[in-house]
Amino acid sequence: MSYLAKPKFHHPALPENTLGYTRRDYEGAISTLCAGCGHDSITAAIVEACFELSIAPHRVAKISGIGCSSKTPTYFLGNSHGFNSVHGRMPSVLTGASLANRDLIYLGVSGDGDSASIGLGQFAHALRRGVNMVYIVENNGVYGLTKGQFSATADDGSKSKQGVVNIDKPIDLTALALQLGASYVARSFSGDKAQLVSLIKGAIEHEGAALVDVISPCVAFNNHVGSTKSYDYVREHNIAVNRLDVIVGRTPITVDYEPGKLELVQQHDGSWLRLRKLNAEYSVHDRRAAIDFLLEHEAKSEIVTGLLYVASDKDELHADLNTTDTPLNALSQKELCPGMARLEEINASLG
Amino acid sequence: MKLTDISAPDYFHKVVDCQWACPAHTPVPEYIRLIAQGRYTDAYMINWRSNVFPGILGRTCDRPCEPACRRGRVEEAPVAICRLKRVAADFKDDIRDRLPRPTAHTNGKRVALVGAGPASLTVARDLAPLGYDCTVFDGNPKAGGMIRSQIPKFRLPDSVIDEECGYILDLGVTFHSGKRIDSLKALLSEGYDAVFIGSGAPRARDLDIPGRKEAAGSVHIGLDWLASVSFGHVTSTGRRVVVIGGGNTAMDCGRSARRLGGEEVSVVVREGFDEMPAASWEKEALLNEGITISAGLAPKAFINEGGRLTGLLVEPVTTVTENGRSTFVPTGEPPRQIDCDEVVIAIGQQNAFPWIERDIGIDFDKWDMPVVAETTFASTHPKVFFGGDAARGPKNIISAVAHGHDAALSIHRLLSGEDIGERLLPHVQIESEKLGIHEWAYDSEVTLDHRFPVPSRDNKTALKDIRTEVELGYDPALALAEADRCLNCDVETVFSGPSCIECDSCVDICPMDCITFTENGEEQELRLRLRVPALNPLQDLYVADGLKTGRVMVKDEDLCLHCGLCAERCPTGAWSMQKYFIDMTHAGDTCPTRSR
């Protein structure tokens, strides 16, 4: 952690986005996490993604649970809405907020303890309901705040800093999300910012439940030889299936690329993702094949990263529940209490 | 691009922009830190070793350091380096016990120094403690040269000149005042082992336009006039005074006239206001005293009526610059008259060596300037060296000091029987500034304060007496506040690739986006590929390898605030903040020989 305030000066040539903000305008308070924490890199990726998409900070609500990861919303988007909720309960708080005001962009930030242990039930139901959100898991495989015990995502056979070998099976949150019906599933690595920023941008643009599982090394308790979530291990075993290069907005741009190497994917809201394929066989449209692919590579101790799946049909909570288009706080007394005549109409229709 | 060799003395020296820009390479951040700590005497001694005249320069320096100051790249105004130097001089204790003692025995070598200005005095300061028998000659009654004769007392009191020249003369230097050398041949025949010529550029330019002869009694040459004012020979002027010229000397003439009875003083200059050669702070001080600057006017004639100067005829012109040369083209507007009683001409000065015989082995070039070697300041005569304005034409005090150091080194090597072209490398020291996990041996917090103005006397008091110093200097509290604006550019970010785990912490925390991890490439292309393109080619890229991914770390030195956040955020100590200190080689320094 830092004891110095980050100087307010910024590079005079720092680019501005269409709102006139620089990247620095999307920062929050200075991080109090350990120096070198992967989470800080994810924070920087979120800052970069929101800057590049020219998102107005007041249009974002960042919601988290408990843990090192859940502290990070303090460190980005200092001018956005925030809710630091109860351990493992981020998904339900987020679901409630989203139902009340569907106009905001929901950024759920959680960790492997918060999502894969105490909050696994909440994780599952928010994804299967299709809550319109970006669900980021800052996944380091250990309980960092309590000095490095294995978490539920720690790989079988992985060694702790004290030398203990983990014997439990790991929960693969991406495979679980695919099985639960999340409509955008990606995995990335905090040490590969270029990949991570694009995947977060794609997730923000996506309408529906988007999970981004980010392997984020814990420098204090899980960055040693024998760990499967260290910087070195993840770099050596990283199998990227594709690179999501750019989000091209609503109008597709045709670019000449070697056939089979480039894929333009249209999301159901009309936005386009430009994918550079690294594995020619891998398809982002096949949920079942994606699960197979993950399990196959997991068996080889490989970590699959990239955009793993994006649904072509809309599956989103507000549509499912047929809720009003207007956020609840914008509904007036007249709409909320339509009066006796309307009640009678309804009663009559039930007759 | 090639990996950076940070062990080369110049690499980090260039990052300390102020020190790099200073002709004498004074360790600026080092003494500013000492001022912040209240260690004024230590700060003074750092200056004294490097630039010999801290109190004088703290009031009068041309400040090449300030335009170079990094603060000026992130904020409007640089650190007030010059005036902080004065703080060290103002608040120091008695330093006499820290000065070298006059040597008990001379080494038997005699060195003559012509002119008692900053260049000669620097040579004497460096050589006398080594046992040389130094003799300084000057036509004026007191030492100081142009420092004493040209700089008005309201900018630089005599007491400061006396003190700092005194430190040198007290080293056992013989000073022959009132003795102008009029033959170098004769001087050489007196058997000196070496002669240093620091006689300045004493000839002022005149303005040969109609009416000049008739107006002779009321028209003065700036350089001579300032000297006469300085030595008390001129004590008054007419009510309306026009100064011709746009340099610092013209500013001094205008401000002097304002104090000697000039109620309406105006400066007439051919260039536009912004193109004038005078320093911005000199112009500002002049304007503050109610003197006007009339820019874009070329003098055409002196107007005399009844045997008396009544005005100056000027023609409006515009400046046309082509291939770096400026010409002045009439705008077509009619010439007009500026009424005045006296005119001071301050349009530049030149070298003149009527006293150097041309048949004694000293070559002169086509501009009638002596041929002087680049670093050694040797002339074509084996025993004769030049320095200051005499060597390279009119410049400034700090350049003269730098020349003096280099010439003294040459003389010392010559008289020790060594090759004068072989110079020792400067002494360089680089050491970690880390005390604890989050503690640094320097104040790394970046303040957002704007430059603090130096307190001055109000015009009413200041204009009353030409010997009343205008600037009061910073008090300790203001000095501390201004010193805190220094970014400590001498505390360097040093990177070790093999320790790096490429976690991006430094990239994310850097407030100026200076750091990029990327594939190496050609410099031009690499500069454009950084987090923020590095478009200032004068500032180096720091490129280091040793990373597991095979990428390189590239740091753009241009806008680094030296805040230390990269090092504080680094989990492995791959970044460290290390204080860099470079001490230029002076005469008598010994360290392992390596050719420069």
Care to give the gist of this entry?
Chain A has twelve helices and 13 strands.
Give a structural overview.
Chain B: This is Glutamate synthase. Chain B: It holds the Pfam family Fer4_20. The complex is a heterodimer of chains A (351) and B (596). With 351 residues, chain A is α/β, with parallel strands linked by helices. Chain A has one domain: Thiamin diphosphate (ThDP)-binding fold, Pyr/PP domains (Rossmann fold, 3-Layer(aba) Sandwich), CATH 3.40.50. In chain A, 30% of the residues lie in helices and 19% in strands. The longest helix of chain A has 15 residues, at 38-52. Chain A is globular, with a radius of gyration of 21 Å. Chain A starts with 37 loop residues before the first helix and ends with a helix. Chain B is globular. The model of chain B has no long low-confidence stretch (mean pLDDT 94). In chain B, a hairpin with a 7-residue loop joins strand 20 (541-544) and strand 21 (552-556). With 596 residues, chain B is an alpha/beta fold. Chain B contains 22 helices and 22 strands. Among the domains of chain B are: 99-202 and 351-415, FAD/NAD(P)-binding domain (3-Layer(bba) Sandwich); 204-349, FAD/NAD(P)-binding domain, CATH 3.50.50.60. Chain A binds chain B through residues 1-15, 23-24, 34-38, 40-41, 43-44, 190-191, 193, 217, 219, 223, 231-232, 235, and chain B through 73-75, 438, 444-446, 448, 501-505, 507-509, 511-514, 532-533, 535, 548-549, 559, 561, 563-565, 568-572.
